[in-house]
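Posting for a labmate who doesn't have an account.
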Amino acid sequence: MIALRIAAARQFEQFGYDQVGAADIANAAGLSRAGFYVYFRDKAHIAVSVLRPFVAVAFPTGGAPSNTAATANLEQLYGMINDNRRLVQCLEPLRVEAPGFVGEVDARILRWHGDLLEGAGLDARLAGLLSAMSIGLAWRPPAEQDWGVGGVTELLSPLMSRKGEGLRRGLCPPAYLDPGQADVSWRGQLSARS
């Protein structure tokens, strides 16, 4: 089973979720296609099995560690996303194939970013926007990736410093952050609530 998970992670990272099938994963692991189905129902099942530990490491349930600076946490996260771009991109097709899992991941990512912002003395309602920026890096071309990581943290550094000038709790424009008016998902879509 571990060989299959390693093979799946490598296949997803090399070719992307949509280009990989159960037979490809089994072959890469040195098993027959039937051997794949002894352990996993389908490609979505193994993708969840591969992504669950990645998400647990990238977004620990205790939130962002309080013993390091918020920008350092973002730099570490962005490095993980950059190194595993196609693996992170697997979340999108899994929205249809494993919506329960992706819903859990969405909530975990949003909670992690909210904890990070609160720990930096910022309004946690910005977590949706920061989550969208973080996960969105997986879809940027590699040439732009370095600017994205450094640029985002460079822009946020003054905001996340206790001494920095910028948006602080309660100083954000209420029209954009009123939870009754708008919801910014981690994918960066703005949708009105009814």
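Reply:
Got it, the structure tokens are right above this. The two ends are 45 Å apart (CA to CA).
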